[in-house]
From TrEMBL:
The keyword Oxidoreductase applies. One of its GO terms (molecular function) is oxidoreductase activity. SUPFAM superfamilies: NAD(P)-binding Rossmann-fold domains (SSF51735). Pfam families: adh_short. PANTHER family: PHOSPHATIDYLINOSITOL-GLYCAN BIOSYNTHESIS CLASS F PROTEIN (PTHR43157:SF31), PHOSPHATIDYLINOSITOL-GLYCAN BIOSYNTHESIS CLASS F PROTEIN-RELATED (PTHR43157). Keywords: Oxidoreductase. Coiled coil: none annotated. This is NAD(P)-dependent dehydrogenase (Short-subunit alcohol dehydrogenase family). It comes from Halorubrum alkaliphilum.
Length: 315
């Protein structure tokens, strides 16, 4: 069983790391540990106000001088993603690590600003567009070990996902948990396909690594309960978090490990404890559907068309 913790991360002085959803939960704890090790952490948040409050909290509760840069990035808006990336290009020469961490879970059907079903739009398409737009900064970086890294946060719920390309945006029918599972499967298809396409370059410039946090006590579950409109579900989520969930600091470890440890591109980092839902990080394997290359290529083509974002190796 793994005993790796955030204390085992190397120093990250001079490194720049973007964390989406950095103002709460896994992103908040990941930001703390990256910055504690000396990195400049760009906190990409939907709400700048909440991001600034989180940065103040981190500085007040961490015994270190943290270098934090709070910026607006609403993954439900392709325009916001573009503006965030343009601002990064104006102010930074390189980006060593991108953590595609933010997400929504099992919410009633709604659509993003661009007309995508929100879970697919935020969890996958927003991060696809963000990665593509930040790609020049990633390829300009020294990274952790000579290559930049893209870390994409999935979930054990990917095992319930199914790619139905005839109705990706759930316009014909909608199941909130099935939609969440599909978005998390899409995260993995993207992460592995990105690595395959990078490997096809004559000079591979980054590593794409996927991870999942296990069952972790964060406000993601609470927001799911609130969005359901069912008070009993909200109470149930709180009880489940208290009884089953590990703390957010431990839940952030797979992301930290994927970003900084010696892992191969295309790896899948997960908790190494009970049913891979608790404990310290280890390299594991996601389900067979996540390695379906035909689905991955089809999703990539759809995502390129839907977002209008092309990666350099696709041009």
């Amino acid at each position: 069983m793994s005993d790796w913790t955030a204390a085992d991360m190397p120093r990250l002085d001079g490194k720049t790391i973007v964390v989406t959803g950095a103002n709460s939960g896994l992103g908040f704890e990941g930001t703390r540990e990256f910055a504690r090790k000396g990195a400049t952490v760009v906190m990409a948040c939907r709400s700048v106000e909440r991001g600034a409050d989180a940065a103040d909290d981190l500085r007040a509760t961490t015994a270190a001088d943290l270098d934090l840069d709070v910026r607006e990035c609403d993954l439900a808006s392709l325009a916001s993603v573009r503006e965030f990336a343009e601002g990064m290009a104006d102010d930074y020469d390189a980006l060593d690590v991108l953590c595609n961490n933010a997400g929504v879970m099992a919410i009633p059907r709604s659509e993003t600003e661009d007309g995508f079903e929100t879970q697919l739009g935020v969890n996958h398409l927003g991060h696809f567009a963000l990665t593509g737009r930040l790609y020049p900064l990633l390829t300009a970086a020294d990274g952790i070990d000579g290559r930049a890294r893209v870390v994409t946060q999935s979930s054990g719920a990917h095992e319930t996902g199914e790619m139905d390309f005839s109705d990706l945006n759930w316009e014909e029918s909608y199941g909130k948990w099935k939609a969440y599972g599909r978005s998390k499967l899409a995260n993995l298809l993207f992460a592995y396909e990105l690595q395959r396409r990078v490997d096809g370059d004559a000079d591979p410039t980054l590593r794409s690594v996927a991870c999942h946090p296990g069952y972790t006590d964060t406000n993601l579950q609470i927001r799911t309960g609130e969005a359901s409109g069912n008070p009993l579900m909200k109470v149930g989520m709180r009880v489940a978090n208290a009884v089953l969930g590990q703390d957010a600091a431990t839940g952030a470890e797979p992301m930290l490990y994927a970003a900084t440890a010696d892992v191969s591109g295309g790896a899948y980092v997960e908790p190494g404890g009970l049913m891979n839902m608790r404990g310290h990080p280890t390299v594991g394997r996601s389900n067979d559907a996540s390695y379906d290359r035909a689905d991955a290529r089809r999703l990539w083509e759809y995502s390129t068309d839907a977002t209008g974002v092309e990666f350099p190796f696709d041009e």
